[in-house]
Design goal:
Layout: H1 2-7, H2 10-17, H3 22-28, H4 34-59, H5 64-82, H6 97-121, H7 124-128, H8 136-156, H9 159-173, H10 189-198, H11 206-227, H12 230-242, H13 248-261, H14 267-284, H15 289-301, H16 313-321, H17 325-331, H18 333-354, H19 367-389, H20 394-408, H21 419-453, H22 455-467, H23 471-486, H24 491-501, H25 503-508, H26 513-525, H27 535-544, H28 548-558, H29 560-571, H30 581-603, H31 612-625, H32 641-657
Helix pairs in contact: 3-4, 4-5, 4-11, 4-21, 5-6, 5-8, 5-21, 6-8, 8-9, 8-10, 8-21, 9-21, 10-21, 11-16, 11-20, 11-21, 12-13, 12-19, 13-14, 13-15, 13-18, 14-15, 14-27, 15-27, 15-28, 16-17, 16-24, 18-29, 18-30, 19-20, 21-24, 22-23, 23-24, 23-26, 24-26, 26-29, 27-28, 30-31, 30-32, 31-32
Length: 666
């Protein structure tokens, strides 16, 4: 059955899911009413912006301020059109008087967005020279743009991020009305608009720059790759590799989501793509509905930490740290491996515990046959990473990866792209990048507000004081703050906020900069599986027909590595390839052993039930294995002794359960 699905024409797969793009809606609509014209406008704007960015990737970016504002303007127009007021969807025709009034308001917003862009571009040189000497119209236009960015963010991202942004805006302008460390001199309105609107420390700073130059091209690449049928390729390959093993369908979910994570940064999108196939299969073979949904949620949320795209945040991390993008994705390799390995461990132990049957190998497709048929799709990822490794800029690497993907798609009839397929993929990529762009612009307001108010330095000192200078306590506070922010903001926005406020305090306590930034990023991601707002878990629960909150709790248990691994690489930066390679290998081995032991602890099973005493002992040994091998915890005791003792203890436990040595206790 899986083999037949793999060989099915890609267009039929899209028709089955009814996952049409706006362009396809426009082509299918035989009328020429309002909705048809809206579809044509949206698809034309999106495709034009995609082609513009491909052109820029080859010939270089124009003047930075005008380039960023052009990108943001088109994205804001798309946000208004795709998330209309008083209507559920863009393709719902206004009927009531209220809906027509709301539609008129949307048209007004679009007019204002375009008017601000015309105002900026009319004489960009003269506009830029007014830094510090604003005129009245600058104040009006800047204020209006801030409000428009917040409104489009509310529509495309959600109200919580707007509330957080509004707090920082009010604080910057009225800090003299706050108390404690928030108290300070207020910022003049003229200076505030100058920083946020004219200069590049605010809305047009690092976040929007990265969104316009790097993020959009990589998301377009992922959209084209998925359009060629790579999603089905990854699922079939994962089934072929793991389906015959113990708990095969659940392991296939983990592997398939890891594959998809290389091109998709959306946890919910990954759940819908792979979960619609793997969750029902897991349930049929005996997995509890709650567990099946939780496995898919954990595996799919791992896409946000999986190189090379990492939910688009990798580019911003690189820009903040002033390092190469390739350095960031290289540092993320081992933490990603540890996370997916831990989920894999949990699945394996649960399958043994519940006696889950294996899939018949004869009913599965052969991995080699799948690779032979779809090697060209996998090869484009190699092209992308290879070009980055030899020094190509991310923009150029993404451009040539897209070109190679389109050209190689003609190798197979099933993956061949028609003009409609290509334009639909370009549109889909821009639409996927739109929420990221408006969130980055809104995050720019936060950064600009922190910059003019001086809150960043005060917050850093306050957090260090609250932790008493203790790194572990500071890490816990940072993690909690990131999880709370992540419940209402996108991963990218959470990272930007935490990087501006708390990461400097981690670096002050001698945390390796790469580890500090990735720590903030990881805990910004983890909210997708953390109750009470666990979107990936809720999406999986809907497919599995399991209780949403219970599924979220189960997801947090299975995804324990996402909470622990950041602490591990802060204390063992060798896991990020900081230091000699031999230390990286040793640290990785200790970490794998420790995370396996924690999986056994949480499941209470390894080749049979485990008594509470042995279970607790395994937990202690696991924590010992996770200790940094080069940092002595006790005076006179080498750092490697504690993890070595933990590893030896776990090995003895395994040997006893396998009957190689007598068991002390069950």
């Amino acid at each position: 059955m899986a083999k037949k699905r793999a060989q099915k024409p890609q267009r039929l797969i899209y028709e089955e899911s009814r996952n049409y793009t706006v362009l396809e809606h426009a082509l299918m609509d035989r009328t020429f009413g309002l909705i048809k014209w809206l579809a044509l406008i949206v698809s034309t704007l999106a495709i034009a912006l995609a082609l513009f960015h491909l052109f820029v990737a080859v010939f270089g970016t124009p003047e930075s301020r005008s380039f960023r504002s052009t990108h943001l303007t088109v994205m804001m127009v798309l946000a208004v059109l795709l998330f209309p007021l008083a209507r559920k969807n863009w393709n719902e025709k206004p009927v009531t008087q209220l809906q027509w009034a709301a539609f008129s308001f949307d048209v007004l917003l679009i007019f204002l967005v375009l008017a601000i862009q015309v105002y900026t571009m009319w004489d960009i040189a003269e506009f830029s020279q007014r830094e510090g000497e604003l005129i009245t119209s600058d104040l009006w236009m800047g204020s209006l743009l801030i409000l428009l960015v917040m409104e489009t963010t509310r529509r495309a991202v959600g109200l919580p991020m707007v509330i957080v942004t509004a707090f920082f805006v009010v604080h910057a302008l009225y800090a003299n009305y706050f108390f404690g460390f928030l108290y300070g001199p207020p910022t003049s309105f003229t200076k505030y608009i100058d920083v946020l609107f004219i200069r590049t420390e605010g809305m047009f700073g690092i976040p929007i720059s990265v969104a316009a130059t790097f993020i959009v091209l990589f998301i377009i690449f992922g959209a084209i790759l998925i359009r060629t049928g790579a999603g089905r390729l990854f699922i079939d390959l994962a089934i072929a590799l793991t389906g015959h093993r113990l708990g095969g369908p659940a392991k296939a979910s983990v592997v398939a989501s890891a594959f998809l994570g290389t091109v998709s940064g959306s946890a919910v999108a990954n759940v819908v793509t792979t979960g619609s196939f793997t969750i029902p299969l897991m349930k049929r073979l005996g997995y509890r509905a709650k567990f099946a949904a939780a496995v898919e949620a954990c595996a799919s949320s791992g896409g946000q930490i999986t190189p090379p795209i990492m939910g688009a945040a990798a580019f911003i991390i690189a820009e903040f740290m002033r390092v190469s993008y390739f350095a960031v994705i290289t540092a993320a390799i081992i933490p990603t491996f540890l996370y997916f390995t831990t989920v894999y461990f949990m699945v394996d132990i649960e399958a043994d515990k519940d006696g889950i049957a294996r899939l018949d190998r004869r009913s599965l497709p052969r991995a080699w046959d799948i690779v032979k048929k779809g090697w060209h799709q996998i090869f484009t990822l190699v092209v992308l990473v290879g070009l980055l490794a030899i020094g190509y800029s991310p923009m150029m690497a993404a451009f040539w990866a897209i070109v190679s993907l389109v050209v190689l798609s003609f190798r197979e009839k099933e993956t061949r792209m028609s003009p409609v397929d290509l334009f639909a993929a370009l549109e889909s990529g821009v639409r996927s990048a739109m929420p990221v762009t408006v969130a980055c612009a809104c995050a720019g307001i936060i950064i600009g507000s922190i910059f003019v108010s001086g809150l960043g330095l005060k917050f850093t000192n306050e957090v260090i004081g609250l932790s008493g200078g203790n790194l572990f306590i500071l890490l816990i506070l940072t993690g909690i703050a990131a999880i709370i922010l992540g419940m209402g903001m996108t991963t990218t926005a959470v990272y930007i906020t935490v990087a501006a406020l708390i990461v400097p305090s981690l670096i002050q306590l001698d945390v390796v900069p790469m580890a500090a930034h990735l720590f903030a990023f990881y805990f910004g991601v983890v909210s997708t599986i953390t109750p009470p707002v666990a979107l990936a878990s809720f999406a999986a629960a809907a497919i599995a027909e399991s209780p949403p909150m219970a599924t979220a709790v189960e997801s947090a248990r299975i995804g324990i590595a996402k909470y622990l691994v950041p602490f591990v690489f802060v204390y063992s930066p060798a896991l990020l390839f900081e230091g000699p390679i031999w230390l990286t290998v040793i640290s990785t081995g200790f970490a794998v052993a420790g995370l396996w032991g924690l999986s056994v602890l949480l499941e209470g099973w390894y080749r049979g039930p485990i008594s509470p005493v042995v279970r607790l002992s395994v937990g202690v040994l696991s924590i010992m294995s996770l200790m940094p091998p080069m940092v002595p915890l006790f005076e006179g005791v080498p750092g490697y002794i504690i993890p070595a003792v933990g590893l030896i203890g776990l090995c003895l436990f395994v040997a006893s359960r396998r009957g190689l040595i007598p068991q002390v206790a069950r």
